[in-house]
């Protein structure tokens, strides 16, 4: 039994199935991050019911983000030579930071549309949350990726990024689904995008 589990684990993380494994991992991480958010929201509102379909919807976004991240990070690793000099790390972090808004914006827009909102409503919801989302992006990914690209041994990167992604999803889901603001985050909405 144990040997089969180890063999399945090795197969899942082999190059042949890595895209599928990364995508499933992201789906589960997104769903878990939203579930944690809902538990947190229940502290503020004890009458709030846990919404399983919401967590499943958030998890399904990983089906879109997972392949994009897989190919993006393979491109990034292939484009910028391996190494951990400060200049290489700065380039990787800058490129990574440039795509972060794609994920947070699609998170909010996707969730608005799959819950019955129109594209117009989805973009308005995004505009209303844009500065808070950007705050979450800036305070999460650059510091996390500096540590990831500069100091962390390669073999621990998937686990580390999965943990950061879980915390990030918690924060993004809170912004996307809440009428509250994140302490310290700017709250002015953006009128024209």
UniProtKB/TrEMBL annotation:
Subcellular location(s): the record lists:
Membrane
Per the annotation, which location comes first and is thus the protein's main one? membrane
Q: Which InterPro entries match?
A: Mpv17_PMP22 (IPR007248)
Q: Per UniProt, what is the membrane topology?
A: Multi-pass membrane protein
Enumerate the UniProt keywords alphabetically: Membrane, Transmembrane, Transmembrane helix
A Gene Ontology biological process in which this protein takes part is: mitochondrial ribosome assembly
GO CC aspect terms:
membrane; mitochondrion
Q: Name one Pfam family in it.
A: Mpv17_PMP22
User: What's the superkingdom here?
Assistant: Eukaryota
Concerning its family, UniProt says: Belongs to the peroxisomal membrane protein PXMP2/4 family.
User: By its UniProt entry, which PANTHER family does this protein fall under?
Assistant: MPV17-LIKE PROTEIN 2 (PTHR11266:SF8), PEROXISOMAL MEMBRANE PROTEIN 2, PXMP2 MPV17 (PTHR11266)
Query: Can you name this protein?
Result: Mpv17-like protein 2
Originating species: Panagrellus redivivus (Microworm)
């Amino acid at each position: 039994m144990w040997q089969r589990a180890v063999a399945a684990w090795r197969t899942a993380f082999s190059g042949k199935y890595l895209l599928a494994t990364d995508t499933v991992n992201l789906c589960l991480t997104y769903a878990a991050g939203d579930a944690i958010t809902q538990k947190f929201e229940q502290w503020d509102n004890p009458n709030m019911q846990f919404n399983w379909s919401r967590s499943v919807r958030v998890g399904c976004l990983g089906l879109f983000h997972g392949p994009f991240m897989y190919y993006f990070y393979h491109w990034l690793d292939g484009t910028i030579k391996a190494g951990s000099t400060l200049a290489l790390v700065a380039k990787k972090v800058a490129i990574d930071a440039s795509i972060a808004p794609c994920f947070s914006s699609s998170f909010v827009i996707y969730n608005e549309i799959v819950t019955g909102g129109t594209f117009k409503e989805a973009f308005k919801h995004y505009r209303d949350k844009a500065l808070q989302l950007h705050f979450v992006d800036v305070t999460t990914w650059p510091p996390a990726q500096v540590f990831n690209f500069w100091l962390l041994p390669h073999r621990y990167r998937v686990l580390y990024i999965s943990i950061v992604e879980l915390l990030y999803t918690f924060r993004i889901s809170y912004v996307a689904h809440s009428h509250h603001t994140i302490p310290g985050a700017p709250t002015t909405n953006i009128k024209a995008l």
